[in-house]
Specification:
single chain; mainly alpha; binds protoporphyrin IX containing FE; 4 helices; 119 residues
């Protein structure tokens, strides 16, 4: 599995299989969230709940497995010394925005499924 993840990706760029697979699944997550929003607009709230819960849960798994772990291993050792370099700056900005967005998404899923109380 680890060997496959480090193979060249399928988009013909220098990215690894893991990076291309992450991008593909994230595009599917985006598509699902868009479909889910459409379902709410059509007042199909149960289907909306199922679709958005699936999309947000997939997002959480991907972020922990394919983002937080690589960030910890490959980016964090260069912080703060190399934060002026583009690779470290862009990835860290992405991580900060993602770290704010992720709990919001998780809260909405937990609240929607009545697993936490509203504020
Ligand atoms: C809602 C939250 C987030 C979303 C929607 C998101 C979205 C994405 C997407 C679409 C990619 C794929 C880019 C590509 O492969 O071309 C990506 C990659 C990445 N993200 Fe996030 N992200 C989120 C949160 C985070 C957080 C919290 C961190 C770090 C703490 C992080 C670190 C990374 C890293 C290191 C990569 C590169 C992974 C690799 O290529 O192996 N992300 N993210």
């Amino acid at each position: 599995m680890t060997e496959l993840l480090h193979q060249p990706g399928f988009f013909g760029t220098a990215a690894t299989f893991a990076a291309d697979a992450t991008l593909t699944v994230m595009l599917i997550v985006g598509l699902l969230l868009t479909i889910g929003a459409g379902l709410a607009h059509l007042h199909r709230y149960t289907a909306h709940l199922l679709v958005q819960t699936t999309a947000a849960s997939l997002n959480v798994i991907l972020v922990i497995w394919m983002m937080i772990l690589p960030y910890r291993d490959f980016v964090l050792p260069g912080i703060p010394d190399r934060v002026g370099e583009r690779f470290y700056a862009v990835t860290t900005l992405h991580a900060v925005i993602g770290a704010i967005a992720l709990p919001f998404g998780m809260f909405v899923v937990l609240r929607g499924n009545e697993l936490v109380l509203g504020v």
